[in-house]
Prior knowledge:
Elements: E1 3-15, E2 21-33, E3 37-41, H1 48-55, E4 63-68, E5 71-72, H2 79-85, E6 86-89, H3 102-112, H4 117-130, H5 146-158, E7 164-168, H6 176-191, E8 195-199, H7 203-206, E9 211-216, E10 219-224, H8 226-230, H9 233-238, H10 245-255, H11 266-275
Helix pairs in contact: 3-4, 3-5, 4-5, 5-6
Amino acid sequence: MGSIIExxxxxxxxxxxxxxxxxxxxNISLEVDKGEFLAIVGSNGSGKSTLAKHINALxxxxxxxxxxxxxxxxxxxxxxxxxxxxxxxxxNPDNQLVATIVEEDIAFGAENLGLPREEIIKRVxxxxxxxxxxxxxxxxxxxxxxxxxxRVAIAGVLALNPKIIVFDESTAMLDPKGRREVMDIAxxxxxxxxxxxxxxxxxxxxxxxxxxxxxxxxEIAKDGTPQEIFSNIALLDNLCLDVPKSVLLADQLRKSGMxxxxxxxxxxxxxxxxxxx
Length: 277
């Protein structure tokens, strides 16, 4: 299908208050295909959010290049093309909500693009439908739950019609129900053709992706399928990452003599166990 995101030998440094450099990304090379669902995991400080902010040019490399759908992020003339191509959903939805009414908030970005009113209305309607928030269009965002606010934030990004959506720890502040709702939306968008970059510290979420990249100290420690990544308990332990509970259970059952393969959902684990009875 071809790459829509290309990092080539990308490094990035933060400068502290004393003027000293701290390397956050070190020689990262990464390609993401159109329509792919990529999860990025890693311990705190591993560089996940720094990498995410390079995708829509909130940050620019100190070394190397980033291309988004063919656009070089260092080309200032292409900045708005890049940000229309790659939308971001951040950790705290309150930081992304700008209006006092849900539908006005979703329309805000599209209005800034100077689109015709009829097109803006259609995009707001379609976005509300996609995140299942149509019944809340006239509500005040501050009256919503955390999960509902995040769905409104996602709808605001969808109204820009991006090809790529980056979820930067977007489920971190939500309860289990809210996390599931956001994950379901991300998966539905991916099935509809969107390229999804899902940054998370919940391994059960990452296990639902097509591919997983582990960052460690600003470098790619491992890149593979969920089965390859999460079946390697020693690797996850070494990088201080949680092992999915289903994988731990499967490991214990294998030690007891059952022929159980690694799966990543309760439903699949129940089927595996039943197949052995």
